[in-house]
Amino acid sequence: MCTEAPGATRTTGAATPGPLASFARFVLCGGGVGLLSSGAVALLAATMPWTLANALITVASTILCTELHARFTFGAGRRAGWRQHWQSAGSATAAYIVTCVAMFALHLAQSSPSMLTEQIVYLGASGIAGTGRFLVLRLFVFAAGRDKPVRRDLRRAPALKGIGGLRTNMRLAVS
To answer: Does residue 146 contact residue 140 with C-beta atoms inside 8 Å?
Structure first.
């Protein structure tokens, strides 16, 4: 007997987790990868400039998180496609910009904030950006049914419905 959690829907044989379960998984995956990434940046920075190490780890962690979110967080049960990777990278870039703007605003307001104040602002901005990113990923990037190609029947297009008895031939004439 197979039971599903309340609010779960079926997609291709796998149960889609509800919003709270997805959010918990999002925090677990993103937080876990974030912790591993911070250590990896420190190790890699010993062999190259920190900015390059950070860029490489950011790209790798975004790819890893997108795969984890596709398979585990949002219950797709399969690998992420190119569209999902690009959209996830876009949402990660937006989150990065939010944290940078928050830190810039802090340094405009206080020329020498304490490390505690910087951490509070950074973590607050990260939390807000992460929540926004979760919503974008859940509602748009990994929404159920988004991977199916859109198939339209031009004969049923609204512009052709009111033509009355006029029949349309949708074949292309080649001379």
So the answer is: yes
The residue written with tokens 């049914």 in the block is 145
Inter-CA distances, 58 with 17, 18, 91, 122, 137, Å: 27, 28, 13, 17, 18
| pTM exceeds 0.70 | no
Q: How far apart are CA 72 and CA 65, in angstroms?
A: 10
The tens digit of pLDDT for each residue in 84-134 reads 888 888 888 888 888 888 888 998 999 898 888 888 888 888 888 888 888
Cβ atoms of 119 and 108 within 8 Å: the answer is no
Instruction: Give 148's DSSP letter.
Output: S
State the Cα–Cα distance between residues 68 and 61, nearest whole angstrom: 10
